[in-house]
Amino acid sequence: MPAIIADPAIAPVGNLQHLGLQAFKPHPVLASRVQCYWVMRQPTLPAGGHCQTLYPDGGSSLNFYFQPDQPPLCQFNGSQTLSSMQLTGAQDAIGIRFYPGGAFQLLGVDAPQLQGKAINAADFGIHSLTELQQQLGTTQHTATRLHYLEQWLLRQLQQPAAQSSHIQQVLPLLLPQQQLTTPSVSALSAAVNLSRRQFERKFLQQVGLTPGQLKLLQRVRHARQLINLNPQQALTDIALCSGFYDQAHFIHQFQRITGQTPGQYRRRKQSQLAMSQ
Fold first, then answer.
1. Of 19, 21, 74, 189, which residue is the least packed, with the fewest Cβ within 10 Å?
2. Which pTM does this prediction carry?
3. What is the average pLDDT across 4-25?
């Protein structure tokens, strides 16, 4: 079994460690497509449960929800709009968080068909996925479940549809952590020897977004990460570090995608930090 190393800092749905959330790194050969595996196991939640906001960033998740004496429910979440998750009662779930384009590569399903908040994965018609559900239902051990997930993904990686594509080659260039000045669509398409029209069509097929839409979601995600790491940092600095050169544009886009201004988001994080101390 490949080594799986716990790394809660990359948890895909926010800081929910107090609710039993852990995140785990994937095998190195999957690292360009899979951000992490996540596990949530909590026997009870506080009265009233917990509501967690989910922010779109171009990624997607394949989630398994365990139920007594039956295979786990398998759902795919590829929503690229602001949403929320209400947690109540006992939690026993495991999932795969894909980077943008990763689900297309490993599931072989066009990205626009994957864009929904809770799609029943049985609708994909992937026989091996049904077998995985059956396997996961046979154990309650987290390490064994992670092993089954990873072995399934490694087998999916061997499928012809999972081979590296032109789009996978240029996706890192759209991440603000890599560089602030993003190449134009014309430059990206020329770099992989495709016409602009071919590039945009393939990009939409594999990612479910245009390059511009993904770039914006990733910049806002990077800004949220910077605020989370250091709520005291000046918002003008955060805007620049995330690739926004106009403060008004930064505030407008941040609010459009997250439902809050950067200042409101920061105040909420500061309040959470004060409560935890």
1. 19
2. 0.88
3. 59
